[in-house]
Structures are given as structure tokens and as C-alpha cells.
């Protein structure tokens, strides 16, 4: 027994000595490590990155399945600054001087005066000429890099040029541009940007949201509209009933395309999209007019081509892909804290109060609406003014919640993944995952609410890690951080993932598989 104790003592002394050597190496390097851990032997410097398969690298989170790991933590430190990101941007005047795009004078003025845009991101400079050339285009790039403007500017520019008194009679509820989004808040936001860009022009912008579709069907509004931003459910019903007409649509945009291509939307989306003559877009005859398809997203499901093949020849789609796609955001610090579920509320309150003392707005994410409600009630009862936003809320209650946060009426927003897709939260400085997302695509979108274009302050993501499934996702993220590689299994088709997991569990348990109906 004494021999075993002496061995244990020697192991501890060796581990302590190794940690001290590691700490001295870090201090002597005069640079912050890429990964800082509570147990410093797991710290990682830039030159120590390795190309290794999952399971072969020592991970700080490897021992987190043990109950004694509670209290452990590690941090992915920001390796570049927002200033460095801005330095990579291109001057708007230089871009226009070197490209073939002839920007409409009023659109250019609105871009600079209304939105304050003087520079373009790399993805904008790369995508705009392709969209302007009327090619079907897929824009796949990291969150916060300005994908909305990348498609919106050239599309609006083309509509302004085609807008003339000789262009024919205008019909009510007959748009020429249709922008589809998965969420109401995103539809509202895109419409606001489009209105600013269309100020003092003849283009009319309208947002069509779900939640009051029956009322619109019973008491429809008829008006001139050029750019229609709509949720899929609302527009499909109003087109079916003949209130809106799609025959003059020349540009169809799927914003947050990964979510719209999820299995929960696929059948309705493909049925709706078949009405547009995408195939005519490449016919070299001025008399034959087709519709341009544009897709924008920060993550793409693996079956994207398979789904799109039902409505378009995918070989005609030009792809604009960022080199940072499916990588961790290098300019955002990300902390991972191992704790029990019972410790989460107290830690949440502490961090929220620290942020409020520093006047740092934050967004708290939960996986379910019930948890989002709990977080909001808990914080408000603890003296913290907190807004709640989730998909189970009534439309009249939910409407305007995000705008209240954006206007600074409240500095704390509790939400689900409803608030993670595409929303431009330049005010936010901190994202706190009260529930850690169970899919890497959701983690990417949540992190993307901070560190966006136009935000120059330091930003932070804090993650509470409690369950076995959460630890599994964290280990994959940590492995990607240590190797500098792509994040694995970035698939936004969540419904498909869940169905596959259920089928696998049924097979393992010996439950008979459901048979497809014969026709």
C-alpha cells in the first residue's frame, strides 16, 4: 500500500513539474496561448498545433465525463483582433473603380449615408459581381461577414435600372424580388435594411410575417410591392389563395438557406420553388426571361445539392465560399465551463451582473422555449431586466422584442435558436449558452451573434457544460481548435440528424423498423 501511495505522490509531483515548465514556456513566448486551461499542462501555443485524428490528441475536456471534473474549464483565446479583420476589407470606391458594376447613384448614396458603409468585406467584393452577372449563386460564408448586402446590393441595383416608365403596367401584390427567411425577426431586419437602401427611389419594400396569415386571407391588402421579404409559411399560403402573384419575380433569395433546406421545410419549399423558371436564366435569348436563384448561409447541410436538384440544375449554380467557413471564429474568445446543472442559475446571475456593471449587452441562449422562459423569469425576479424571445410566444407578444434589445431598451435577451439565425446583433458583446447546443451548426450561429462587421469591441462566448451529450460536442470543438481544422459534422439539417439517431436507437434496442407504405 505504501508503494502505491509513493507512486501516486510521484505522479502528482511529475504533473506539477510539467505544468510549471509549460507555464514558463508560455511566459517566455510573450504571447497568449491559443488554448488556456485550468490544468496548464493542456495549454496550447500556436506552434504546437498538430494534424491528428479525433481521439489521438490529449484534450482538456477528455476527463469531463467524470463527476469530479466539475469546476474545470478551458478558454479558446482570440488569435486576431477586430482591427485586423477590418484591415482585410476593401474600399467601396476602389471596388467600384475596378469592377464592372455601375451602381445607381441613389443606391450608392443610401449605402453610404443611411447605412454608413464605406468598405466591403472580402465575401461582398467576391460575390457582388457574380450576382450582378445574373448567375444562380450560393454564398456560403461565416456569420457576421455581410452576406445580406452581398446579394441585396446587386439585386436592388438591377431592379432600379430596370425600373422605368416604359417597363409596363404595375400590378398590386406582384413583386419582382422575393426574399425567403425561416424567421420573422430576420424577415423584419432584412426589410429594414432594404428600405434604407431604397430610400428616395421608386422601389417599394414589404415584410410579410407569419402569425396573422388567416387575418390577411380574410382581409387582404393590395398594394404596389417590388421587394417582398417573407417567411415561407406565410407567403406559400397567400400565393395559394391568389392574394400574391409570383409571375413577375426575377430574383428568389433563400436567406439562412441551411435552415430553409432542413427536412422540416423541404417538402413545402420545393413545391413552392417549382413555380419559378430558374432554367430559363441561362437561355441566351433576350425575349426569354428567367428567375435568378440566390442562396446565403453560414453553414450548409450535406444534402444541399440533392434538395436543390429537385428545382434547378445545380451545375448552373456559382459558389462563393469563404475560406473561414465551418471554422471557429478566431476573433472571439470562447470559454467552456464544466459545472452541474444545479450550479447554472447562480453562475448565470453572477456573469449577467458583471456584464451589466460593465455596460456590456448579452444574449442568453437556451435549447428549449421552457428554459428560455425560466431564464427570463429567474433574472427578472433577481432584479435584472431581461427580455424573452422564443418561437412558442404569441405573435403580438413576440413582435418587437428583438428591436427593443437592439434599441438599447434592455441589455439582456433570453432566447432560443430563434434568435441565432442571421440577426444582426452588433450591440451584443457577450453570448452565454445557458444550455450548450447539441449540434455544431447551432453553436456556429450562436457565436455569430457577436464579433460582426461593424463591431470593434472585444467579444466573448461563455458556455455552461453539464451533460454527456454536451461534452461530446465540446470535445469535437476542442479538437478542431487544437488542430486548426474544420469543425466536424456541421450539418444544419437537424430534423434529419434526430430521425437518424432515433432509428439507430431503435435498431440497437431491437425494435422493428417502420415500413414505408406501398403505393
UniProtKB/TrEMBL annotation:
InterPro entries the UniProt entry points to: DEAD/DEAH_box_helicase_dom, Helic_SF1/SF2_ATP-bd_DinG/Rad3, Helicase_ATP-bd, Helicase_C-like, P-loop_NTPase
Location of the Helicase C-terminal domain: 351-498
Helicase ATP-binding domain ranges (all copies): 98-411, 128-318
Molecular function per GO: ATP binding; helicase activity; hydrolase activity; nucleic acid binding
SUPFAM superfamilies linked to this entry: P-loop containing nucleoside triphosphate hydrolases
Chain segments annotated as transmembrane: none
Keyword list, A-Z: ATP-binding, Helicase, Hydrolase, Nucleotide-binding
Name of the protein in question: Uncharacterized protein
Source organism of this protein record: Drosophila virilis (Fruit fly)
Gene: Dvir\GJ17795
